[in-house]
Amino acid sequence: MFKPDKRPSAIKPLLRYIRPHAWMLAVSLIFAVISVALTLYAPILMGQAIDKIIAQGKVDFDGIAPILVKLGIVISITGISQWLMSLCTNKISFLTVRDIRNDAFSKLQKLPLKYIDSHPHGDIISRIITDIEQISDGLLMGFTQFFTGIVTIFGTLGFMLSINVKITLIVVVITPLSLFVARFISKNTFRMFKLQSEARGDMTSLVEEMVGNQKVVKAFAYENEAEDKFEEKNLRLKKVGVKAVFFSSLTNPSTRFVNGLVYTSVAIIGAFSVISGSFTVGQLNCFLTYANQYTKPFNEISGVITELQSAFASARRVFDIIDQPAEPADSADAVTLTEVDGTLEAHDVAFSYNPDTPLIESLNLSVKSGQRIAIVGPTGCGKTTIINLLMRFYDVDKGEIVMSGVPIKNCTRDSMRSMYGMVLQDTWLKTGTIAENIAYAKPDATMDEIKAAAKSAHCHGFIKRLPNGYDTVITEDGGTLSQGQKQLLCIARVMLSLPPMLILDEATSSIDTRTEIIIQRAFDKMMQGRTSFIIAHRLSTIQHADLILVMNSGRIIEQGTHNELIKNGGFYKKLYYSQFENQ
């Protein structure tokens, strides 16, 4: 059973974004009034012209001519007013949507990683792109038809009252039935459009997941299962989409039926009035035109309500992101780090992603300047979590981490993170040239500096073989570059900036053994005098580390040099020799 949504309405936030453009709203309303007033004046002129046609051979051409001139002027000014009104409403819609999109994307940069990690990326993309487009369409139709509709209703009502009060009252009594019908339909329409937006977000997530991991899909022959999943989500989207369209499509014929009743009533009663002599044919024609114009806005407003329901449902999803609490701001007295000595300490640190599932408990660590710290342990023991805490991607639940004598919670995040250089197992490149990707952390780097970093990372050779060398444009997935080549570019990126502290998370996992030996030498040179944290599964690569931290179940259970840990014969020795048990 459907439960009513208790979350706040999206109308107030939308009005907040529309408010800066209120002056254009006022101008649009003025042009709407002018357009409607002249549109309503035209039937009077046409009625007067009809009354000048007395009978066959008795047409007052001298009287009709000035009326036709007036009619031409009225139609011209009406057209210009409608064009200017549309120009204003279009601008309001696009400026409003631009501001919403900017704020949504800006908030995305400020959200804590916890939010990004816990929501499907495809759904977030769908909210930023598709749902905001739905808002644009809804606002555009709303501004264009809602204003003119309201003005037309009141304007037409005034003109009809000036012609015949009795027939006007009949029109007024019957017409509001269409609003009651539209209100009944809109209740179900909003719910269906909301479900449609959610289903669309689920489908975007699946497509993004399948496209981004197509090699894995093909490697495991997962195509059929992927198609089945897509068909299932597509079927769900079709079902809620059909229901949304069905309920929204009921609005138009229902209101048109009411409009037909109004028009028929006016025609019959007006005809009898003409026969009785209390009404002229011209006045009847004028009144029929007004009756049609009076009921038409009810039909349009009903359609606008349906479109706005879709826009509000989409707006709710977008404002869910905008209204999320941002990552806590740096405190006013936060220290801006300009340089560090490379020392780092952790005092009784505790952290867990889920309060019900403890992960890091009572973590104590003391790192001296220039030390190479290797972190090893089985999968899920908390190695990468420690990196997340060191970089303050997540804040500790208990205890504190101190960098160069300053607790990192008392430092500005940007300055603290700039002290680290990271090379991760998962490579990330942006759409742009090879040179731009290497200079990502140092945009003002010269080409000589970029080439020197590439040579240090041993990727200068393959870059020169590319069609345009350092000016070759690649996409975010690296295009035709191999995984190893992409990782070499990421290593070159760090070698260019050379921060005082390094984090290497399986940095050579995608590189062949021969290249790894060369890169390891480059790393040895790069790590000289720099505090380095190395996460490695191949323990042979960290034998020369100054300190090896052995983790298990979120705790450091052993620490020491390679030789000391082997001599102790504990967990590390078993872990180390397990790599060679097949030999």
Question: If you had to describe this structure to a student in words, what would you say it looks like?
Answer:
This protein has helices at about 10-20, 20-50, 60-110, 115-120, 120-165, 165-175, 175-210, 215-220, 225-275, 280-320, 385-390, 415, 435-440, 445-455, 460-465, 485-495, 515-525, 560-570, 570-575, and strands at about 55, 60, 345-350, 360-365, 370-375, 400-405, 405, 420-425, 430-435, 475, 500-505, 530-535, 545-550, 555-560. It contains 19 helices and 14 strands. Helices cover about 60% and strands about 10% of the residues. A six-stranded mixed beta sheet has the order 8-11-12-5-13-14, sandwiched between helices. It has a four-stranded antiparallel beta sheet with strand order 4-3-6-7, with helices on one face. The protein is α/β, with parallel strands linked by helices and about 575 residues long. The two termini are about 60 Å apart. It has a domain at about 10-320: Up-down Bundle (ABC transporter transmembrane region fold).
Characterize the biggest β-sheet.
6 strands, mixed
Write down how many β-strands occur, each being a DSSP E stretch of 2 or more residues. Answer: 14
Strand composition percent: 5-15%
Give the C-alpha Rg: 35 Å
Q: Which stretches of 5+ consecutive residues score pLDDT under 50? A: 1-6
